[in-house]
Design brief:
- The chain has about 240 residues and is α+β, with helices and mostly antiparallel strands.
- It has 3 domains: about 50 residues, RNA-binding S4 domain (Structural Genomics Hypothetical 15.5 Kd Protein In mrcA-pckA Intergenic Region, Chain A); about 90 residues, Pseudouridine synthase I, catalytic domain, N-terminal subdomain (Alpha-Beta Plaits, 2-Layer Sandwich), CATH 3.30.70.580; about 80 residues, Alpha-L RNA-binding motif (Alpha-Beta Plaits, 2-Layer Sandwich).
- The chain is built from 6 helices and 15 strands.
- A hairpin with a 2-residue loop joins strand 13 and strand 14.
- It is elongated and about 70 Å long.
- Bound molecules: uracil.
Length: about 240
Amino acid sequence: MRIDKLLAHSGFGTRKEVKELIRKGYVTVNGEIIKKDKAHVDPMRDEIRVDDEKIIYEEYVYYMLNKPSGYVSATEDNVYPTVVELIDDYYRDDLFPVGRLDVDTEGLLILTNDGVLAHQLLSPKRHCPKVYYAKIKGIVTEDDVQKFLKGIVINDDYQCQSAHLTILSINHGESEIEVEIYEGKFHQVKKMFLALGKEVTYLKRIRMKELYLDTSLQLGEYRRLTDEELDRLKDESVLQ
Ligand code: URA
């Protein structure tokens, strides 16, 4: 990897600014001052320092975001700001969201540059469990719970897998529920309720596999996953 690219990716400034640091002799590779910005280094093996600060290069990064409404789960969009724009301590351009939450859906979203993990979590064959909290206009009934368990039909002919619906409360004609689903069709939760003639008025993801949304994160806030959380996400044994 080129040294100027590595330093820019590590937050030492723009390409132009890091070239200046290199030219002025602030950068060492394995103890030797390096003055060529085109020089190649191996970030996993070489010891690279900027003004004696050691660069710790991470190949893969993993963030948990409490997604706010109004942000699109994409890396680019012409209409809405993207979830990637919320991660303002990341200096590379390879971050992407693992799957999609609708623009008006809130809650747990993982962002990473690890395509293999993303693929594992999104692969329909792996039935990754996802839990949502929702507010529903109207009264959700035990009959609805049974229908979710049997498998709701959406998009005219798509038979959803069995899903676990829990009624949390019913107040003033509004129901609060939690639902666990094992697939990720477009607008799935909203469509499942629509198939029963009910409207989702608020939707928030609270869990993906065994990874729970950190409730101390305010909407729009994010943090790195801990090693233990990452292990739980990667653990194949927790899948159905
Ligand atoms: N189901 C939906 O309808 N929307 C989401 O954002 C996620 C699941």
